[in-house]
Here is the input.
Amino acid sequence: MSKILSILAIGLFAAAIHAADSERVFITPPGADPKVAAPFSNGVMVGGTFYVGGHLGVDPATGKVPADADAEARLVLDAVKLSLERGGLTMADLVSVTVYCTDLDLYDKFNAVYRTYFHEHYPARAFIAVAKLVRGARFEIAGVAVKPGKSR
Here is the structure.
């Protein structure tokens, strides 16, 4: 009888883990109207993994990309940081980042701003040149973060 109970308990535990891993939490901008918002989420949490959707460095007050590349880099990183925070995470929880950039001459300029968002260890990163980004942006960032204690 105890063998059957043990097997049943293991089965229930495995089912609970699977259910927790398959739950999805979608992060959208604060106050976004789903009827007019872009057709994607800013981030999606699945189990302990948070997938950061592509973010642009758009000024929330104007809806435009600033003329200054440093300001745009700060805005795009602030947008990523906000999405992570809304998912219960921090920049330190990022494990992988992809940066899309329309001008590789901005690599060092971007890195100077990027360094200020991390304290010790940097996530794995790719910096990819692209011909064009939406809204005339110079940078777009997507990434993956893992909730502390959740290595699944």
User: Anything to note?
Assistant: Residues 24-146 form a domain with the 60s Ribosomal Protein L30; Chain: A; fold (CATH 3.30.1330.40). Strands lie at 24-27, 43-46, 49-56, 94-101, 124-129, 139-146. The first strand starts at residue 24 and ends at 27.
